[in-house]
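Subject: Interface between my chains keeps coming out wrong

I've been trying for a while to get a sensible model of this assembly. When I model each chain on its own everything looks fine, but I need the whole thing in one frame so I can look at the contacts. Pasting all components below, labels as-is. Any help appreciated, I'm running out of ideas.
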Amino acid sequence: MVEHGDIRVVHRGGSKINFREPVITHDSRYLLCASGECVKVFSTSTEECIHDLRGHTGLVTGVLLKPSNHLQVYSCSADGTVRLWDYTDGILIKTYVIGCPVYSICASANHEGVIFIVTPMLSDKRSDLFQLVAVDLPQSGDQLVEARELSAVLSDVSSNPAAIVFGRGGEYIASANGLHLEVYFFKKQKSYRFSLKEDNKKGGKNTVTCVACHPKDDCIATGHEDGKIRLWRNFNHKKEYTYSTLHWHHSAVSSLCFTPEGTNLLSGGMESVLVQWRYNQESERDFLPRLGSAITHITVSPDGALFCTSHSDNKITIIQSCVKVSAVIQGLVKGESVRTDMMVDPRSKSLVLNGKPGHLQFYSLPRDKLLYNLDIVQQEYIHESGLEQFEVVKAAFDASGSWLATVEERKQKDAELELNLKLWAFDEQTQSFVLNTTISAPHEARITAMCFCHATDSQTTMLVSTSKDGHFKAWQLGAPAHTEADEGPSWSCDFVGAYHGLVPECCCFSADGSLLAVSFQEVVTVWSPASWELLTTLSQPPKAVRDLCFGRLSCSKYLLGTTANNLLCCWNLLTCSLEWSTSMDISLLLADPLTENMAAFCCQAGSTDLFVFKPSEPRPVFSQKAVCSGKVTRAVFAPREEMLESCEESSQWLNHSQLYFLTPYMDLMTFTTKAEEDRLMASSKQLVIDDSVAMTPFYLLLGKHRQQEDADPLSGLSAERRPLPQCSVAIKELLQTPAHVLPSTSFLCSMFVQSLLISVTNGREETKHVEEEMESEKEEEDSEGEMESSTQRPEQASLGGQAAPALTKAQLRELKRVKKLDHSWFPGLLHS
Amino acid sequence: MASFKPTKVQVYPKLGEKVTQDTLYWKNYKAPVQIKEFGAITNIDFSPVAPHNFAVTAFTRIHIYGPFSQEPVKTFTRFKDTAYCGRFRSDGQLLVAGCEDSVVRLFDVSGKVALRMFKGHTKAVHITDFTSDRYQILTGSDDYTCRLWDIPNATELNTYQEHTDYIRCGVTSKLNRDLFITGSYDHTLKLFDARADKSVMTMDHGQPVESLLLYPSEGLLVSAGGRHVKVWDLLKGGQPLVSLKNHHKTVTCLCLSSSGHRLLSASLDRHVKVYNTTNYKVVHNFDYAASILSLALAPDDESIVVGMTNSILSIKHRKSLDESKEISGQQRRQPSYRVFVKGKNYVPKQDDYLVSKPVKQHLAKYDKQLKKFNVSKALDTALETWTRLRKPEITVAVIKELDRRGTLKNALAGRDEQGLARLLNFLIGNVVDPRFAPVLVTAAEMILDIYQSVIGQSSVVDRQLLRLQELLEREIDYQQDLLEVLGMLDTMFASSLPRKEVPCPGTQTTDITKQTFWYRF
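Reply #2:
Try treating it as a single job with all components included. I did that and got this:
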């Protein structure tokens, strides 16, 4: 075997951002949320991810602003540490080692230097009992501090972070577990425990799901499994406590939150409606319906202006005072399972798979960002558990990405299967897919496979679908049937094929579209799509064929199939005979569309191995044992935007496209080479130069401009009156100078870019290191100014460019700070 | 925050005929004017000159109607027995008619008494016509002869005795004064030349010939007899061109539209079929109440006149241009258009600040109620009379949506007798429709489950349930029959397919759609 030390399996994006309650910072500009093993810092206005606070080695289980310093944040993790970060710069300040997994964290301004964490009971090893522990954080200057001074506050608490909350001014702490509510008063050092019956009279479940405390009043709100909210008062007595009940939700309340002034109570649950109750006037409610999917957490910013809800489909919504959704941060939507295959959209090169119920999501892999959701089902989604909904089960793109075929199905108990085949055309104008044809009930039973003819030169597009009803159908785009129809062409059935009443399982077109292979249990039939003639049958009894794949390019004479009795067969289509076969338990076989390579995920002893091979060669190109645990059933080759130039034999298969796969736990993984990783690291370092949030170049250009307008109303007025280009003398001059007098465009461009990178207007903070640099910069600036008026002296500008690479690391840091200054030259340019 | 997605009303492929230019043209007639005559109407002939009166021969009378009159403008009653074949001369001045009493009478259109009487035939004369020189008359009779008469001195010019059975149709050439064609019950068509003593061409139709028609160019001849309509090419010596068999009873009359592009045939099977004369495909079809004996089209197709065996004359006039426009105009409500368009076409000036207003989503009434989760009300709205009768697909879509939401049972339950009767009425009307059956069967099952306990309390509901049961039993029988036919077809296909070396590829789907059975009732 070849040594493959340089190819690694890496986790690629799409981690959960709705796992724990997000935190809004005091100035409402950032949103922090736990995401896998890191904490992500988002901007609330631009939705951009600004930092990843990386350092934890386990799942991050809680994020909390430090009560005494609003610019620092605690995060706790299952790796047994609590870390303190500066989120504006993304720097780790301190690490407190607790020693056992931490499940949630809370703190109050009243308890300086103490944090409260939930850990498993130390006494016994049973993992289902948890305790609330106060940790005294030692004051020391070290980065890594051991915090071993633990004192138990409450035992038998819930590990759910929503079930423990501090009361008014940190005087008491309320914790709910199951049917009990426990309130601990710090002054009296005494706890009160209130219990509910398991079921109330109407059969509703009383289990507490979440707790919230009023910030100004002695009132605790609890949310229950049956959708009720109870408001507890007088709980500092054992017997005379009272509660009132609010009921709107029809299923469990998953999150409760009081606004900072305590005027409103927010609640949310499965219905995906944010409900705002007036405190003390509970009959008055406001609703914000149709937020997309079930609400899991609600947070309010400290000034009460922003609400923030996280949803079960890996989404965070930012709402301005319960009226308007102002921003949506959407991660890769993960359902319980991906029923469509993973695909790559040939146009946008984005990953396409099931998203929200009834939608397909288009996910940009390089940017780790959801591009958009395509609504396939186009029906109002009813948020109710136990309801059978339409699900997108199959999807396919044609070679150019101009057609998308989707199959949605809904199976109700004792009712017929409802199937819809939809064909979507790509609309150039709106740059999205538009529904072209809906075929209801295309088959009488479930559709097992679907594929487009991938030949690029054929005039007509063809789609083949196979179904459990024993037929496969070919669909073709036809001209409008009769003259009076004003709509364009639509799809219709071209051919219905069957083979001895057997059930077809999978189908595959050859690369040139001249052959169609359909497997009927253990028989593979090869058809000619031009004449619909059965050309030949291939079979490898005794077990059914699971996967079919034609070879590409030089291997196009081969047809590969895997069978249920762990065989990988390769047939030669020229001789119609079996070329070779090998015994492997292959769970997934797929072909790289750009090369001859094929990837086979092979399940062995609880973990999955990967083999990459060419059908014509006996030796695999690459193989890796134990790629991940469990069975891999979804994977895709995503073409690279630019080819890699790796010459090493083992990594050559990654040159044209990248292999992504989904683990059984729905993590998106990929294979990278060392060189690629290095390059990525370098580029990410360059990106981090501008660390002032929301100061995007757009802001600098437009925001500054706007500020100046505001400051100077007169000039602002005049600017409004006159169209922009006329008032800018420099641009006008630049535009009116004859082209032959101007220096070359590439020269102008490089100067423009350099002025963007390093600019000087205020030399106040400059240290001596940079001063020589500054000199040259100034010269450059001068030259630019002169250039624009007279377009002379092109020689000097290269100075800055030559000097820049000679910077040391310290200088780089300084430069970073310099970068923080403004791009004020441009608005200035606009006004000159 | 997404907006509410309205209920999807499925678009079903339209059943019935497709809308073509021809259907638009031939549908553009007013409701027919019906006039009762004294007996079966055997012939209708339009005057070739304006105002295009037409002569209707029925029993012992010939009535002449004006183009828009419903009363005859003139009547000829001087027949001893049943009159036949009242035809106008090309100048519209004279009218000739045969009679059961073998006498042929010639009338002045403005007069009353016959100008001339042509006696010579020994049996009833069924066919009379003027030759193109306007001075001679052709007659054909049940005595197997056809004769030429001179009008001025009322003498017989020639007799042709070649047919061996009754002569029941005949036509003279409009271009040549000497040529005429007769058709007889001896299955033959004969072309005669007055200058010769014998027929010059004989064609065999195969059935007793009932009607003949010459194309304006006179190159083609159309004959009708039995269930067949045949087209002959006279210039190729009477070569048969096409044989059409679209009627299922004897074709009695033929007619050409004024443009010459459409051929009409009327039959005893109560249909008038319109053929395209280039490909001889049926492009339109009229239905009438009784067997049709005669048919005529006014010049420019201004009206279609049809005479039937039950002595009813049906006249359909073409809709005038503004009338047909009026109907489309009625659909658009007049004053609101200006309200809608108000301010829409205002172009913002340079300094204007444009405030964009969110487009208000318009929801149907049932959607508004679904949005509020008022499921019973939504179903009530969808069951309103107009929707239920005109757009059953909307009602079905709402039922389907309720089923998807899992609230169909709630929506169906709790109805009084009237509400339930309305629901059952809808089911009876639509449950056997294959487009709606899958949805409505579930609804019907739910209704039975819910209202099981109240069966027997209301006679209205009970009667409807019985009707529903009857309907379903009949439908099951139909389905069984269909499956049997399908089975027969399958065996036929299987036996007729040639045996190949390669295992046979899948059979093409047959047109008959398989439908599911419901045995629950």
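Reply #3:
Confirming on my end. The first strand of chain A starts at residue 7 and ends at 11.
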